[in-house]
Amino acid sequence: MGTFLEVAKKRRSVRSYKPDSIPDEILSEFLEAFRWAPSGANSQPWEVVVTKNKATINAIADIFIEQYERQKLKDPDFPGNRKEYLKEVPVVVVVCGDPRLKDAYPKALGDRRRNAIYLFSVGAAIENLLLSAAEQGLGTVWITPEEEDEVKLKKLLSIPEALEVWACIPVGYPKATPGSRQRRPLDEFVHWDSFDAEKLRSNLQIREFIATGRAKLMYGPGRNKPSHSDDGGDKN
Ligand SMILES: Cc1cc2nc3c(=O)[nH]c(=O)nc-3n(C[C@H](O)[C@H](O)[C@H](O)COP(=O)(O)O)c2cc1C
Fold first, then answer.
1. Which of 141, 153, 219 to mutate to test the pocket of ligand 1 (most atoms within 8 A of CB)?
2. What structural domains does the chain harbor?
3. FRET pair for 192, CA 20 to 30 Å: which of 103, 171, 208, 228?
4. CA of 12 to the centre of ligand 1 (A)
């Protein structure tokens, strides 16, 4: 698919999929990419549940459709999407963290940083998976379960109590490739030699960014205000 930078730029959160199945060797490849992620003290604090089972995928989809309904009530301004698309995907990867591995990190770092290392490690592995899948022409989207969803996912997938469920990642062939999503220009956030205080955004700028730019940034230029449509706002 091209150079690393091309893959990184082309990877998009996909919210509309074809039902076509994924060959096992491609599945193994993105799981292998997950496996080779860096992690604090090489602790590899993760477990993944991978399902191709239609009934299980439908049950996962229902959990996130309910999540959307709750979010719409609690936070009507959040530009969420209904996640019916989960019912179409051939594979879902549920990523768990094992917080017991936090003990692998130096105690001197303190709880806050040890927790961050644990979560960053899981996040690094997820990103490897997303990029590897993109390289294979597959779409993914990193979906965050709420605590209520975590309880349901644990029950559905027999995930042990000691683990934490941090992400659900549908993987499949995109129905269409979503358009480019904006990124902040480099010179807005890169500070050479020392921090350039003039570049620090004011509280007002941050509030405006969240209030007016968020939906457009999340779903592309076609969507600039909250909507609760089923298509996630993607121009697919
Ligand atoms: C930590 C993290 C959590 C995310 N959680 C969700 C989520 O719960 N639902 C969702 O639809 N997208 C989620 N996303 C995807 C982001 O919305 C998406 O990456 C962002 O809008 C940029 O779009 P792009 O991935 O197409 O470049 C998440 C992404 C990250 C990195």
1. 141
2. 4-178 (3.40.109.10), 180-222 (no CATH)
3. 208
4. 9
